[in-house]
Amino acid sequence: MLQRGLGGLVSHRHAKSLLRALAGQPPLPRSAWMPAQPITVSSSHFQSNIKDYSIPNASWSPVMVGLYNELMEKTVDGSWTRLPGCWRSLQLLKEADLARIAKAVPIQMIEDARLFLRITDTERLGFEYVIFHSDSEKKCVCLFQPGPLLEGLPGIIHGGALGTMIDTTFFATAYYSANAVFTGTMTITFRSPVILGSVVRLEATVTGTEGRKVFLSCEAQNSDGTILFAEASAIFFQMK
Amino acid sequence: MLQRGLGGLVSHRHAKSLLRALAGQPPLPRSAWMPAQPITVSSSHFQSNIKDYSIPNASWSPVMVGLYNELMEKTVDGSWTRLPGCWRSLQLLKEADLARIAKAVPIQMIEDARLFLRITDTERLGFEYVIFHSDSEKKCVCLFQPGPLLEGLPGIIHGGALGTMIDTTFFATAYYSANAVFTGTMTITFRSPVILGSVVRLEATVTGTEGRKVFLSCEAQNSDGTILFAEASAIFFQMK
């Protein structure tokens, strides 16, 4: 999910101010081009829009809700956890991790930014998804219902949108199972087309580690596992 | 860009009606879940929203506009072509190709669908991009200015958004240079983080063919080529 600075990793000059909880600045009107305006993190950034987007809504199909309920049952004994669907990665990352990331990558606050998967927040139209994590199995399962704004060929999901969901499932697995947040290399093989509005079940697993490298694999299938939509592998890197 | 049905390629039962230019049906209200409603293609689908999104607008930075003007100069003698920025892939594909694709992939019309890269059509916020193609060099150059809604880490582009732009540049190269539209396998290695609002220059080339397979490579760099953001390779498949 998160891009990595392998080569010229810059220590971030805004790191301190970024982590200070200062009062928010009013957003600038930006109808015409101007350089990005880094702002300091205010407590409102952590608190604003704390809606959980990974709870069933009226746009979820009965198949999607059925799979959700099955996975929720696995959370009862604590072996699996449902991850909340956030508005920005800032809400997802532990504050200590954010400080470590800021040493490696020039992160900054932009007032109107939001997580790519939240690019539309109207129910049904974009990325409807929920991710469950099992710590003991070092695994995540993602249920994903792509909306009509994720189109490639008419009525079919864009490869980049499925790739985004795969990357995000990899990220959740790498972060919660192995403390890795930086995507190094990702390979995706597309096997069958995904029709918009259908349900995709993604399952990603940590397959090994080597130094700071974390190796993962992922399969995206239909709801009953009879169609393989895509398979993927990735190398993530742990934070220093 | 476009997903492929490698395994159980289905001949599409809607193919004929899909290609008939019938009068449009009114969109259905779909506040709650219901199955996708395939509709027939009307002439309005080809004509509606013919705005060209790949022309400079007020949100493009001076660097983006400068690179655009340089590439536009190369179009004067016809060696390079600027590709129009469309609203749906339907507007991009030749009608005869759409019929061939429909034999391999169950494409269908969904009333409120649109190309993933057009998920937001407000200037600056999403994918601002333009692609140029050289037929003789079997190459595309894409200029890309990612907006604040494409965020992964705070202020940094989401790997899935950069992957979407890479996939799209691959697609344009594969389609216009080698008549291939189906992404088979794509590998991306992320090298440096891309800051939202900065300019990315992607260059993709056909490196070889083997039967219906088309091999491609791509590099994503900053505007003056001093930072490598990502490198990628892909295999696309030609239509039968």
β-strand amount of chain A: 25-35%
- Give me the strand/helix succession of chain A: HHHEHHEEHEEEE
Helix content of chain A: 10-25%
What is the CATH class designation of the largest domain in chain A? Alpha Beta
Largest interface: A-B, 85 and 85 residues
Rg for CA atoms of chain A: 18 Å
Estimate the global geometry of chain A from the Cα principal axes: globular
The helix count of chain A comes to: 6
Quaternary structure type? homodimer
Which regions of chain A are unreliable across 5 or more consecutive residues at pLDDT < 50?
3-31
Question: Going by CATH, what is the homologous superfamily of the largest domain in chain A?
Answer: Hotdog Thioesterase
Strand order of the largest sheet of chain A: 1-2-3-5-6-7-4
Give the number of DSSP strands of chain A: 7
Number of domains of chain A: 2
Largest sheet of chain A: 7 strands, antiparallel
- From the helix content, strand content and strand pairing of chain A, which structural class follows? alpha+beta
CATH architecture name of the largest domain in chain A: Roll
Organism (chains A, B): Equus przewalskii (Przewalski's horse)
InterPro entries (chains A, B): HotDog_dom_sf, Thioestr_dom
Domain Thioesterase (chains A, B): 155-226
Protein name (chains A, B): Acyl-coenzyme A thioesterase THEM4-like isoform X2
